[in-house]
């Protein structure tokens, strides 16, 4: 007979865990309800736990000395969040802000260490999760550094479509309201430059707006601008 914990299935960035190993994670979690606008952790806090999002959304940000915010990741249900080095006493490099009321499972590093030491198959799955996280970081920095702000914006739109997209014929609706300020914070640009770049893409009939949400009409054009390498969706996500 299956345990009650099996009613929750691994998805998001935890797809790499087998059902058995994901259930091992579930057993160690302590549930917590966190309201919108609160924080799971702040940049500079000691990293001694991971967070599994059962419901809601969380964004990871990095702040400059001038107060500029860069949005690095947007996590949702099925994602595990936190510093991926449980064997070392490190501090968080980012801030995790809750942008929708969320239900999370808290996993202490000491409990994670026990699972890794006791189950070699769990250790392998955890290494896969760390690898996905590392590749996601690498590709995001490539997008920000290699092909200018237009390339970074197009890559971000593609990532948003893979995360929140709904196919409608040849078009893809990004089914979350993303403001120009959000986009500017995702690519490290000014809001005005994002306005200009989106206006250019609309003139080229690559994107349009529908009820305040972005619709991608020409995905191939965006892929050409950002020199898309056709990464799998677990990597090419926001």
What does this structure look like?
There is one protein chain. The relative contact order is 0.14. A hairpin with a 2-residue loop joins strand 9 and strand 10 (171-174). 39% of the residues lie in helices and 28% in strands. The longest helix is centred in the middle third of the chain and has 27 residues, at 120-146. It contains 7 helices and 12 strands. The termini are far apart. It has 238 residues and is α+β, with helices and mostly antiparallel strands. The protein has helices at 19-28, 109-118, 120-146, 148-164, 180-187, 191-203, 219-225; strands at residues 30-34, 39-41, 46-47, 49-63, 69-76, 80-81, 90-91, 95-108, 165-168, 171-174, 207-210, 213-216. The strands form 3 sheets. Strands 1, 2, 4, 5, 6 and 8 form a 6-stranded antiparallel sheet that branches. The protein has 2 domains: 19-144, Jelly Rolls (Sandwich); 147-235, Orthogonal Bundle (Arc Repressor Mutant, subunit A). The model is unreliable at 1-8 (pLDDT under 50). Residues 147-220 form the HTH crp-type domain. This is Crp/Fnr family transcriptional regulator. Residues 17-116 form the Cyclic nucleotide-binding domain.
Tags for this model:
disordered N terminus, 238 residues, six-stranded antiparallel β-sheet, Jelly Rolls, alpha+beta, four-stranded antiparallel β-sheet, single chain, Arc Repressor Mutant, subunit A, globular
């Amino acid at each position: 007979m299956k345990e009650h914990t099996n009613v929750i299935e691994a998805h998001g960035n935890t797809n790499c865990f087998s059902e058995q190993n994901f259930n091992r994670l579930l057993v160690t979690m302590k549930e917590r309800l966190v309201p919108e606008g609160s924080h799971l952790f702040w940049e500079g806090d000691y990293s001694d736990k991971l967070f599994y999002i059962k419901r809601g959304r969380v964004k990871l940000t990095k702040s400059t000395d001038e107060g500029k915010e860069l949005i690095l990741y947007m996590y949702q249900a099925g994602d595990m969040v936190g510093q991926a080095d449980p064997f070392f006493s490190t501090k968080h490099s980012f801030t995790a802000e809750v942008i929708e009321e969320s239900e999370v499972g808290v996993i202490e590093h000491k409990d994670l260490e026990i699972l890794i030491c006791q189950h070699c198959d769990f250790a392998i799955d955890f290494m896969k999760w760390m690898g996905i996280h590392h590749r996601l970081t690498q590709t995001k920095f490539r997008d920000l550094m290699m092909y200018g702000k237009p390339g970074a914006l197009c890559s971000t739109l593609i990532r948003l479509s893979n995360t929140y997209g709904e196919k409608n014929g040849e078009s893809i609706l990004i089914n979350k309201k993303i403001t120009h300020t959000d986009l500017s914070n995702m690519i490290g640009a000014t809001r005005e430059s994002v306005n200009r770049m989106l206006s250019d893409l609309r003139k080229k009939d690559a994107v349009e707006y529908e009820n305040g949400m972005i619709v991608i009409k020409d995905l191939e054009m965006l892929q050409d601008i950002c020199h898309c390498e056709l990464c799998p969706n677990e990597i090419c996500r926001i």
